[in-house]
Write a structure and sequence with these properties.
Elements lengths: L1 H16 L15 H5 L13 H4 L11 E5 L2 E5 L1 H8 L8 H10 L5 E7 L2 E4 L2 E15 L6 E19 L4 E20 L13 E15 L7 E7 L26 E8 L7 E9 L15 E9 L3 E8 L2 E9 L3 E11 L8 E12 L1
Antiparallel strand pairs: 1-4, 1-16, 2-3, 2-16, 3-5, 4-5, 5-6, 6-7, 7-8, 8-9, 9-10, 10-11, 11-12, 12-13, 13-14, 14-15, 15-16
């Protein structure tokens, strides 16, 4: 058992450092505090209500029926503290509210995200309501233009999983009805109007499906292979419009993609176990990229009595870490991670902090 664990860890390390580096931030539909603390790796280890979004095959790992009523999750760049001191931020998710802040802190990356996911899940089934605000921005040195990415998602999510051979094979799918408002504009004139219509905001509704697979071998370490096909057949946001704003422009298409992962789950003592995982993202959409290190994510988690959780990982050449306290009704998660926001030749880390609180019933 120890020898097998060592071999698996060595293979993970070889995967981490055998790829070149790459440049630009990749944004996912959902990544939670647990996954971010573990280097962004999540599809082979997810075992709670977030499986509906991360990997629907993970619904087969659930043991009971439960729901979440209140589960706010806040993800902020550590830069925001100094940026707020230079120019106060009244609403971190509003483009007009951060324009002066970006101008006062030029060449400083801004990131703010908030999400919620009230849901009800059972073994092999779940349904939830997902909402997310995301705002990234930066002012150039001369103060002549802002690079802004904004996304506001509201989605209804339904998922189901099929179990075969006593759960050694799990095959799941979800269906997501998503209404999205999006701004993806790197040439916004900060001296002009930053009204959503003026800067090219888009809005539309689309139907999206993910397929997930988890294969678990019946051995001591439970070696697991997992894959998720995201946005099967591509997701376009042209099914309906005008739900939350009026515009003739539609959000960017979400391209079909594939993520794969490996994991093991050693048991160390009566109340102590761990999870080790490595994940590769974007198998279908990154063939032309020269820096593959950004696609590699890896992490570990130590679980004591399903109450205390300690996590660490590797995300795009930067360390991650986190802690969780969980009780029957309450869950508190903290995480820190680094995101690559520079270029291939000039890497630049944006260090972020994530806080999540959830109340379950």
């Amino acid at each position: 058992m120890k020898r097998t664990s060592a071999i698996f860890i060595i293979l993970c390390l070889l995967l981490f450092f055998s790829f070149e580096t790459w440049a630009r931030e990749r944004r996912t539909f959902y990544t939670g505090a647990r996954g971010l603390a573990m280097g962004g790796a999540q599809i082979a280890t997810v075992n709670d209500e977030t499986a509906l979004l991360v990997n629907p095959a993970g619904l087969g790992k659930l043991r009971d029926v439960y729901g979440t009523i209140l589960d706010p999750e806040i993800d902020l760049s550590n830069n925001l503290n100094s940026m707020n001191q230079s120019s106060s931020i009244s609403n971190p998710y509003s483009i007009p509210s951060i324009k002066d802040t970006l101008n006062a802190s030029r060449d400083t990356y801004y990131h703010a995200s908030a999400q919620f996911f009230p849901s009800v899940v059972a073994k092999n089934f779940g349904i939830g309501l997902f909402g997310k605000y995301l705002l990234d921005g930066e002012m150039n040195t001369a103060g002549t233009n802002m690079d802004i990415y904004y996304r506001n998602d509201l989605a209804v999510v339904l998922g189901y999983n099929f179990r075969f051979f006593d759960g050694r094979i799990k095959l799941g799918f979800n269906a997501k009805l998503i209404n999205r408002i999006e701004v993806d504009n790197s040439l916004i004139d900060p001296t002009g109007s930053v009204d959503m219509q003026t800067i090219g905001a888009t809005e539309g509704t689309g139907l999206s499906t993910d397929l997930g697979l988890i294969l678990t071998a019946p051995w001591a370490l439970l070696p697991t292979l997992s894959a998720v096909v995201r946005d099967v057949g591509n997701t376009t946001f042209d099914k309906a419009s005008g739900f939350r704003m009026t515009t003739t422009n539609r959000p960017n298409m979400a391209q079909q993609d594939v993520d794969v992962a490996l994991a093991i789950f050693p048991i160390h003592a009566n109340k102590l176990r761990s999870a080790w995982t490595v994940e590769h993202r974007g198998l279908l959409t990154t063939a032309a990229e020269t820096d593959k290190a950004k696609l590699i994510h890896g992490g570990l988690e130590f679980n004591y009595a399903d109450i205390f959780f300690f996590r660490a990982g590797y995300n795009q050449r930067y360390y991650t870490g986190g802690f969780e306290f969980a009780s029957e009704r309450m869950q508190i998660q903290l995480a820190t991670y680094g995101e690559e926001v520079g270029t291939e030749t000039s890497p630049r880390e944006d260090r972020r902090t994530v806080v999540k609180f959830a109340f379950r019933f």
